[in-house]
Known about the structure:
By secondary structure, the protein is mostly helical. The chain has one domain (19-135). It has helices at 19-32, 40-50, 55-58, 73-84, 104-113, 116-135; strands spanning 37-39, 64-66, 69-71, 88-90, 97-100.
Amino acid sequence: MSVGVQNSVKNEAVFVFTALDFLSTFFSVLKKENVNIVSAAKLFESIGRHRESYLPIFIDIDVINNGGTIYSHDLEEGLSMLQIIGAVGKANPKFERIILKMHKEEADVFIDDCPEPYRNYVINFANEYLKETKES
């Protein structure tokens, strides 16, 4: 008679930090800094440049670098969702200029809702983005 070893498997949920999570927190940080318009091209370029440094927030977001042109279906979908809820607007259908329509109180809620381990990464990335855009 053989004695079987019973292995218990924990069923733990895995949290995925989505493009919507990133964008809602990122735009909220910018709104708190009195930024009302964001260049989509500069945002995508910044993500392409710093993706490896901020991998915990970008690991589950598909980012494509096509010969220097950065694109992401995930980020485009996140932008669309934020537009549906009225947090952002667009200057044209391509989202070349993203208009931050949220109020600062709403921005506080988005920031507070961001899980703690990711929040600091997004805030640091937003500060890096602001520094770069001021220098250019």
